[in-house]
Amino acid sequence: MRIGLQTWGSEGDINPFIALAAGLVKAGHNVKLYITEVSERDYSKSANDYGFELVNVPNPMLPSVDMMAKMSDAFKAIRDPSEQLKIINKYFLYPAETAMFNAATELCDTSDLIVRHIFCYPTQLAAELANVRVVTLYPVHNIFPNPHQAPFGAVNLGRWAIPLWWRLAQWLINKIFLNQINDLRRKYQAPLISNVLKQAWSNDTLNLIAVSKAVCPREISWPTNFKVCGFLNTSEVYEETKLQREVVDFLNGGGAPIYFTFGSMLVPNKDSWLKVYEIWRETVIKMGCRAIFQLPISETTQFSNESNILIVKRLPHNLVFPHCAAVIHHGGAGTTQSSLLAGCPSVVVAHIADQPFWGSELMRLGVSPGYMRKSELRTALLIKYISLIFKNSNYRDNALRISKAMKEENAIKTAIESLIA
Question: FRET label pair with 126: which of 169, 252, 285, 395, CA 20 to 30 Å apart?
Answer without folding.
Answer: 169
